[in-house]
Amino acid sequence: MKLLRIAPAALFACSLFVSPAFAVNKDMVQLQTQVQQLQESVARLQQANDERMGVLRDLVQQTADSVNRMSVSVNTLQKQMSTSSETEAGKTEQLSNQVQSLNDSMDELKARLGRMEKALSDLQNQQQSINAKLDNGVPSGGSNMPPAGANPVPDTAVPYTPPPAATPTPRKGGKPAAGTPMSQGVDPNAAQQPVAESAPPVSDLYQTAYSDYVAAKYALASAEFNRVIQFYPDNALSGNANFYLGEIDYRAGKFPSAIKFYDKVLEQYPGNNKIALSHLHKGYALIATRQEAAGARELRALIARYPGTPEANQARVKLNGLKRAAN
Question: Residue 162: how many CB atoms within 10 A of its CB?
Answer without folding.
Answer: 14
